[in-house]
Amino acid sequence: MDNKYKFSNKHAPFNITPEACPETGLSILSTVLVAALLLGGCARPGNQTQITNIRGYACDTAGLVAFDQLQIDPAGRVLCRGSDCQDMPPPGRVIDASGKTLWAGLIDAHAHLLNLGMSRQQLELTGTRSLQDVQSALHEWVEQHPGTGLIVGRGWNQMQWPEKTFPHAADLDEIVKDRPVILERIDGHAFWANSAALATAGVTAMTVAPVGGEIITDEDGSPTGILVDNAMGLVTDLIAEPEQADYARAYLLAMQEANSLGLTGVH
Question: What is the pTM of this model?
Answer without folding.
Answer: 0.64
